Model the fold of this input.
Amino acid sequence: MKRIKVAIVGFGNLGRGVRRALAGCPDMELVQVITRDPKRVRREVKNVPVNDFRSFNREVDVAILCAGSRQDLFNSSSPMRPPKSLAASSRLGQGPFFARLFNTVDSFDTHARIPDYRHYMNAYAVMNRRTAVISAGWDPGTFSLERIMADAFIPGSHRYTFWGPGVSQGHSDAVRRIPGVVDARQYTLPVRSAVARVRRGQNPKLKPGEKHTRLVYVVSEMAADRKRIEREIKAMPNYFLGYRTRVVFVSRARLLIEHKAFPHAGFVLTSGKTGSNKALIEYRCAWESNPEATAGILVACGRACVRLNIEQRYGAFTMADIPPAYYSPRDGAELLKNFM
Done:
């Protein structure tokens, strides 16, 4: 099989992580980077501005979209009908826009909006005979798979997802979009007492704010209204509203020294009974680099996306819709021999 040609769209922490992940995949090659600032990209691959769609390499097999979920990937007020020109379609958000041009993979992670996002992505992908793998990563993504499987294995069970301790890329990006914010890191912290209750099999009913707290380090502009920034953070729906959130303003130097890493962790717990006996399934991950962890999953999804498209399976798919073997570079015989 020929090498899969990959484009990266967006070259922040996640985009750079994808480039590193591709370097370890001999069946794939990076051929183009599409970014707002092409000067940031080394010249060993072609790179073009994100708004210069006439220069995009149309021979790309799959584009991995590395933009933020809150503003870049999806504009939910967009019309379902196609715009009159490709240039005009940028108002749809980068997800639907690039689904018209390429097979795509993205990590759209605003959980409450995934059904709407899939509706849009499916429409534009089918219309253009493309395949889009949406909301990939470790949550949503691999954690979604764990929740689905454990729910099937233990009927009538209770599901709990705990994130952290670690840096959330999506939440950090959302804070950086607030006027007056220069940079930010958002740490998600599980509430230990809640975790202990679940592990004891108590099956508590927990609201989101009872499972996690949020800690935000913010670098603001000199003249910015810090009280306004803090209010906007705490009132942000789908991100901070309903959570106990602490906002700490720090200098740029302190942020870069003390918070330069992007670690993250998390676990999915499914608690219930098999007959009359208690049962607990726990899946845990721990990443020293959240961007690189997500990037590795996106690259595997890129491989699966191309395989689906070759089979003429057009439209939007989540990781739950894809056979696990499609993610692997190994053939079926090796998977049977060494991984079963």
Residues 213 and 244 are 5 Å apart (CA to CA). The longest strand covers residues 264-274. The mean pLDDT is 91.
